[in-house]
Amino acid sequence: MRVDLHTHTRASDGTQSPTELVHAAVAAGVDVLGLTDHDTAEGWDEAARAAADAGLALVRGMEVSTRLDGRGVHLLAYLPDPTYPPLVGLLDRVLEGRSSRVPAVLERLRAVDVELTEDDVARVSGDAAASGRPHIADALVVAGVVADRDEAFRRFLNPGMPGYVDRYAAPLRETIRVVTEAGGVSVIAHAWGRRRTRTPDEAAIAELADVGLVGLEVDHQDHDAGARDALRAIARNLDLVVTGSSDHHGAGKVGHDLACNTTAPEELERLLEAAARARAASGRPAPEPLGL
Predict the structure, then answer these.
(1) Distance of CA 5 to the CA centre of its chain
(2) How far apart are CA 144 and CA 198, in angstroms?
(3) CA 240 to mean position of chain CA atoms
(4) Which residues share a beta bridge with 36?
(5) Kind and range of the H or E element at 147?
(6) InterPro entries given for it (predicted)?
(7) What is the pLDDT of residue 112?
(8) Residue 115 pLDDT more than 90?
């Protein structure tokens, strides 16, 4: 069984529709797909219909932008009730932070003689729940300023570059609690990816487990072998679920092909058992996995 629990569509910053993603997953030999668009459940219904038609098992989720001790942390929230008011409010604030920084980024780009308009960004963001840096990167590609998203981030959009603007991210501990209250389970995405230091460390992760964290995404393209070994050891010490995923964005992220990393079936079972317990304890109409 091939299980890929971290993917994106045009509902956030991927380049495929939910239906196209499902078809691509089937073609890649994926048996269980996790849909985790940034800060939104917008793609869930379309993906569910497509997965049912294609005979693909689907775990619905989202990747929430959070912050811990001043550092950004992405949190994979699986199977929460997306109508739970505190979760709705938290996501609305994060999405507003994404959209509201677009004009500020464009102003900074103009200061270095790169001309883009909000209409340019809107044309490439399409039906996304909010426009963000990946869409600005796509607009830079269309304008011929850069060759691809990677170059756009490297030259203009990463922290320290001319077009970088910070934005709101939800407090991590609060987000874990809200996801649990919504009947879902939380997994830290690419915990040590794109970092010079291995943070959060085991002590911080243990504290988060006490709050309700269920797992760590260990096998990810942004983790080298040493980071994977260390994170796997932390997960074992803290009895956390270990996941592996592609973080697939379609054509928007090179080197993240579907199923390039996968989650072991026994770890998927542990994750879904934890979700079933959370759903029962919450009393919320949280979704169940489809086709499993």
Answers:
(1) 10
(2) 36
(3) 19
(4) 61
(5) none
(6) PHP_dom (IPR004013), PHP_domain (IPR052018), Pol/His_phosphatase_N (IPR003141), Pol/histidinol_Pase-like (IPR016195)
(7) 96
(8) yes
